[in-house]
Design brief:
The protein has helices at 24-42, 46-62, 64-75, 79-100, 140-153, 168-174, 194-202, 216-226, 251-263, 283-294, 315-331, 379-387, 402-409, 448-451; strands at 3-8, 15-21, 107-108, 120-127, 130-134, 157-161, 187-190, 209-213, 232-236, 241-245, 273-279, 334-337, 341-342, 345-346, 349-352, 370-376, 395-398, 418-419, 439-440, 453-460. By secondary structure, the chain is an alpha/beta fold. It has two domains: 3-237 and 438-458, Aldehyde Dehydrogenase, Chain A, domain 1 (3-Layer(aba) Sandwich); 241-419, Aldehyde Dehydrogenase, Chain A, domain 2, CATH 3.40.309. Helix 1 (24-42) packs across helix 7, helix 3 packs antiparallel against helix 6 (168-174) and helix 9 crosses helix 10. The radius of gyration is 24 Å and the shape is globular.
């Protein structure tokens, strides 16, 4: 009998379902199947690959409610947000296919170098091979598509590791491929014990690339797995995004942005606004306005379509968030609101008097609905606080002075700066990724097709006859 993983609903602690955990032999078989399938798929013309991918998109649309209900039950994400994630994933998948249909090679000039006058060089993109994709718990459907869509349309095979806390919706999504005409083993998904997939998937010489979203600590492990065989790595990692609020900002707009960026998915978003850097002249007004709005949120059963927020991924993680809150209070912060939990639900929490030297103001990434408010006097100090972290995923500046915001953005060390908005922003075309310990590479229709393929140069010597015809 295979080892089984039981998935529990974090809201009511009821079983949601079970999935098998592959052992060493099964993992080796997965890799072998993927190798065979990839060779077949790579020879399939792009238009045929695109046709199959468009069919997959339609299957996603037809199964939104079923997949969304499973996602909500297994991770506590409000049902409306689960539906939005799956609908968005279908759009993202289509976007990658459309971009691939218009991804062209180049014809390169050789005439600028003596001795190459008669030659012709043109380029073509080719697949890497078998891609190992590692998916986090917070947006498993969307991030599955962010990795699988560009990999598959470019002629690769995918072996996708689902999050063990909530694998069922993603595996259900992946099972839709079985209805389509593709080589067996082209796209495989599973949950697994870390030791098994690390040793027999990530370290396998038959894996050409690792595409992973997760913590910076896990990203270091991925890089170590890739190093011996020089695998391509694409890493979208952690963030402790700083959001600057200047003195001229509209208070009501600011607090709306704070709630949108930190309550959504219970604050479990890599680019969520985890540090609020607020000008000292308005920090009290911002705090009071925020708390009044937080009091009006509906918190509870994630299957209730009226609920604004529910659980974090598990009660264990909820306890960790409370410990981080308590640690910050011990360092000297003031608990202005919240700071409690009910099972796996962490109540929205506002921390004031947060000094720029506290852990939460630099590298303590809190994956929960927590609002640390750090005051500043000058724009230069605000930028210094924003950059005082080993992360650099996203950031935001809220001000009525757009010219000054653009000026400040030049000095912020992050992969994105949202001007007049909070940092939790993602568009499918955006080259999403970060500076420093927030990752390697970028994801989005503007760049991932290139990340998961390789360029081959075709060189035709003496292509042109330089003799002038008589």
């Amino acid at each position: 009998m295979p080892k089984m993983l039981e998935v529990i609903n974090p809201f009511n602690n009821e079983p949601v379902g079970r999935t098998p955990l592959p052992d060493k032999e099964e993992m080796l078989v997965m890799v072998e199947k993927a190798k065979v399938a990839q060779k077949i798929w790579a020879k399939t013309p792009l238009w045929k690959r695109a046709k199959v991918c468009y069919q997959f998109v339609e299957l996603i649309k037809e199964n939104v409610d079923d997949i969304a209900t499973t996602l909500t039950k297994e991770m506590g994400k409000p049902i409306g947000q689960s539906i939005d994630e799956i609908k968005g994933a279908a759009s993202i998948f289509r976007g990658f296919v459309e971009k691939a249909n218009h991804l062209y090679g180049e014809v390169l000039s050789t005439e600028n170098q003596p001795g190459f006058d008669n030659d012709l060089i043109f380029t073509k993109r080719e697949p890497l091979g078998v891609i190992a994709c590692v998916i986090p718990f917070n947006y498993p459907i969307e991030i599955y598509v962010q990795k699988a869509a560009p990999a598959i349309i470019m002629g690769n095979a995918c072996i996708v590791k689902a999050p063990t806390s909530n694998p069922l919706a993603m595996i259900k999504l992946n099972d839709l491929w079985s209805r389509l005409d593709i080589p067996e083993g082209l796209v495989q998904a599973f949950a697994a014990d870390r030791d098994i997939y690390t040793e027999y998937l990530l370290k396998s010489p038959d894996i050409a690339a690792i595409s992973m979203t997760g913590s910076s600590k896990a990203g270091v492990l991925m890089a170590q797995c890739a190093a011996p065989t020089l695998k391509t790595i694409c890493l979208e990692l952690g963030g402790n995004d700083g959001n600057i609020v200047r003195a001229d900002a509209d208070i009501d707009y600011v607090t709306d942005e704070m709630i949108e960026g930190r309550i959504y998915n219970a604050g479990q978003t890599c680019c969520a606004c985890k540090r609020w850097i607020v000008h000292e002249s308005i920090k009290d007004e911002v705090t009071n306005n925020l708390i009044e709005k937080l009091k009006k949120l509906k918190i509870g059963d994630p299957l209730d379509p009226e609920v604004d927020m529910s659980t974090v991924i598990s009660e264990k993680k909820a306890k960790e968030v409370i410990e981080q809150i308590e640690h910050t209070i011990e360092q000297g912060a003031t608990l202005a609101y919240g700071g409690t939990r009910e099972g796996a639900i962490v109540m929205p929490t506002v921390l004031t008097d947060v000094d720029k030297n506290y852990d939460i103001a630099s590298d303590l990434e809190v994956f929960g609905p927590v609002f640390p408010i750090i005051s500043f006097k000058t724009d230069e100090e605000a930028i210094e606080i924003a950059n005082n972290t080993s992360f650099g995923l996203s950031s935001g500046i809220i001000t009525k002075d757009l010219k000054q915001a653009i000026h400040m953005a030049q000095y912020i060390q992050a992969g994105a700066v949202v001007l007049n908005g909070q940092s939790s922003y993602y568009n499918m075309n955006q080259p999403f990724g970060g500076y420093k310990m927030s990752g390697i590479g970028r994801e989005g229709t503007s760049c991932t097709l290139e990340e998961l393929s390789q360029v081959k140069s075709y060189i035709l010597k003496n292509a042109f006859d330089q003799k002038v015809p008589e």
